[in-house]
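pipeline/complex-builder :: batch 7 item 3
reading input block
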Amino acid sequence: MTPTDAPGHDVTTTLDFLLQEVDGLRTRWVAPRRLRVDLPAETLPALLELLKGRAGYVHLSAISCVDWPDDGQFELVYHTWSYELNVLVMAHIRIPRDPGVYLSIYDLYRPAAFFERDIHEMFGLWFEGSPDMGKFILTEWEGPPPMRKEFDGEAWVMEQFGWQEYRPEWLTEIEAKGGGISKRPEQLRGDKGEDGTA
Amino acid sequence: MTDLRTIPVVAAGEERPSGGQGNLLARVFDELTAFCRSRSLFMLHYCTGCGAVELPPAMTSRFDMERLGIQPMVTPRQADILLVTGYVSTKTLKRIILTYEQMNSPKYVIGICSCTVNGGMYWQSYATAKKLNDYLPVDMYIAGCMPRPEAVISGLRELIANIRAGRSDYWRDYYRRYDHYLGNQQRLFGENWQTPTDVIAEARHYGLFGPETLGEHTALLEQHQTPLQPFEMRLGLKQDKGSSS
């Protein structure tokens, strides 16, 4: 690895040049040290291997997941960091929502087991080859994966817990003067429905 | 829909066998006990949420809780007050109940912050228990997000006054209406929920057995209840099953 802090050296060209070796990816510099890469799901392991082997991307910061119910897709974002280049590479892939199965990258990055287990719990995705897909944080949870968009948390709460009215005297005093809660939860829900997207 | 005012108030002293109408000395002794109790409270603060931030100033020199006789205590078995400071997730609630049942009576529960009242800003959250008084008898709520140390202290003073006057007796309610509390716990944790403490036997032992101690939920508990086993003591390191370097 060449020292990249040397004057005249441009990290962006190094990475851009390197990433030409993987087909079908689009790169965009969102900030001087943040590179966004969009690529088909099947080329992600190749990209990560390339980054890890040739550019010192030894650190997997996080895997994040976004649910796109209208597109019928899950978006997975792999955030990797190189301590030599000091550039964050975010690899975005989309996988179909219906089977919701993807490959584990545990063989490349050990911390992936942690993130994949978390995503499995919250979104219901299955990562083939991940060492443990058991319950993780929501050990008392029996319901559907709660971070999916179709999960109605509020309805769940209403069914499971009920609501406790809390109207202290000081609140009625404030409301008499025209203050208090400006937007009731019912109104909020109504607004959300009109937008169509939430 | 529950209203805070519908929490049943158990009239103090109604089942005290040595209530002592004739014996004046017993009254005096009861008064003395209540006074001593109210002036030396050990507080176990179960810091579940952000409300715990306000406790260090309330405890230390600025607001100085100790002048009221309130001290932090490290173990539940020696504590009088269980202070639940903030939102209670389902997972945490289990631990709170275990902690509460370990405490010696008389014990008092204080819910601090709006989250213990009705979920507060987490009212939509699937993982947060909304009403603490569904699962435990709560003696006092100190609402606010978060309540300032002044509010905490004023709440504690009120609790002291209640204890002094014999009004804070909700811990008896846990024994008397155990079926109600257990039912709510089972609703959240599933039917196999069981704590290491045998509350029913304790209720019998202390003469706090009420008509609502047993019910359909305790019947469910008895079906699967496993007798308590002493903890096996193991020394040495456990072999990690998935570790490889």
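note: Residues 24-167 of chain B form a domain with the Rossmann fold fold (CATH 3.40.50.12280).
queue -> next item
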